[in-house]
Structures are given as C-alpha cells and as structure tokens.
Amino acid sequence: MVSVAPMRLFRWWLFFLLLLLPLGMLVEGLLTNDLGADPAKYIVKELGFWALCWLWLTLAVTPLRKFFGWRWLMAYRRMFGLYAFFYAVLHLLAFATFLLGWRWDMLMTELTKRPYIVMGSLALLLLLPLAVTSTQKMQRRLGRRWKKLHLLIYPASLLVLFHFVWQIRSDFFQQLIFAILLAILLGYRLYLKRRS
C-alpha cells in the first residue's frame, strides 16, 4: 500500500506539470514556428483561455470536495489559483508586448474603445491580493479577514467571464459553456450557503 506522503507528492508534481503543459506547448509552437498565421494574437488568446480554465478549476475544488468527497483536492486549490493568476499575468504581458508594443497611448485608446479590456484589467486587480496573500503565513496573519478577502474570487470570475464574452465575433459556443459552468459553480455555493 502506498503511503499518503508519496502519493500527495506525486499528485503535487502531476498537477504542477499538467498546469504548466499549455505554456510548454506554446513555447514549443513558438520555437517551431507552428502558431498559425498570427502568432502574437494566438499567444495572447491561448494564455487568456488557460488563465480562465485554471480559475474555473480553482472554483470547482469546493463543489468537487462536497459532491464527491474528494478532500485531498483541497491541498492543491492554492496551486490552481496561483496558476490562474500566473497565466493571467502572462496574458496581460503578451497583450502589452505583442499587440501594443508597450505604447501607452495605444493602451489608453484600447481601454476606452474596448470595454472587455477594462473588465479583464479589473479582474486581474482583484486576483492580485489573492495571489499575494495565498501563503500560509499570510493566512495566519489575516485570520478571519483572509477568508473575506478571498471572496474576491467570485466578482473576479464574473469579470473574467464578461471579458471573455465581450470578445465574441461570431461563434459563442465556447463562451456559453464557460458561462454555464460558472453558473453551476457559483449556484452550488449559493445553495450550500442557503442550506446552512
């Protein structure tokens, strides 16, 4: 029988590498010139997509634990959340580098013309304190305030969804799937709160 500690270590490395895999595939595609006709736009889009996926995964931990009894998953929620923030920061940096060229005049124009950029920026600002206070030391220091602060993940996730939906050009199927998933994840929490 495998002891708990090696199994937990195995899971930790498994999740760590799986969450890093999309970035590795992007780097490989960049090195092999296999990112399509517009690599810059593809990189920005992919980083944003995976930031969204990992944020939804973070939100899914509690429902999965409650519904299936997967208590072991709680040990990796912080990792999921930090990866979501990591990919979101890379998404922003890629946007500023490849699409704006770090031109602040263009950034101000984009902010006024494209509301989805404002939504994404606000979401990232809400996720920043969650990432900064994700350590156990900060959790102990903040006490009860830590849980209240980390409720910011809910408005952040809604802003991310608006950021995603607002970019619809023609096909909205992917956005619809993520909207339904978020409705389930947040709805289940409301159900638990009302029940308690």
UniProtKB/TrEMBL annotation:
Subcellular compartments: Cell membrane; Membrane
Question: What quaternary arrangement does the UniProt entry report?
Answer: Heterodimer of a catalytic subunit (MsrP) and a heme-binding subunit (MsrQ).
Question: Gene symbol?
Answer: msrQ
A GO BP entry is: protein repair
Output the Gene Ontology cellular-component terms. Answer: plasma membrane
**Membrane topology per record:** Multi-pass membrane protein
Task: Tell me which cofactor or cofactors this protein depends on.
Answer: FMN; heme b
What does this gene product do? Part of the MsrPQ system that repairs oxidized periplasmic proteins containing methionine sulfoxide residues (Met-O), using respiratory chain electrons. Thus protects these proteins from oxidative-stress damage caused by reactive species of oxygen and chlorine generated by the host defense mechanisms. MsrPQ is essential for the maintenance of envelope integrity under bleach stress, rescuing a wide series of structurally unrelated periplasmic proteins from methionine oxidation.
Instruction: State the family named in the UniProt similarity comment for this chain.
Output: Belongs to the MsrQ family.
- Cofactor binding remark: Binds 1 FMN per subunit. Binds 1 heme b (iron(II)-protoporphyrin IX) group per subunit.
Question: Ferric oxidoreductase domain spans which residues?
Answer: 47-160
List the protein's name: Protein-methionine-sulfoxide reductase heme-binding subunit MsrQ
Q: Name one Pfam family in it.
A: Ferric_reduct
Record key words, sorted: Cell membrane, Electron transport, Flavoprotein, FMN, Heme, Iron, Membrane, Metal-binding, Transmembrane, Transmembrane helix, Transport
Q: Where is the signal peptide?
A: none
Q: Which domain of life is it from?
A: Bacteria
One example GO MF annotation? oxidoreductase activity, acting on diphenols and related substances as donors
Q: Which InterPro entries match?
A: Fe3_Rdtase_TM_dom (IPR013130), MsrQ-like (IPR022837)
Membrane-traversing stretches: 48-68, 80-104, 116-136, 148-166, 172-192
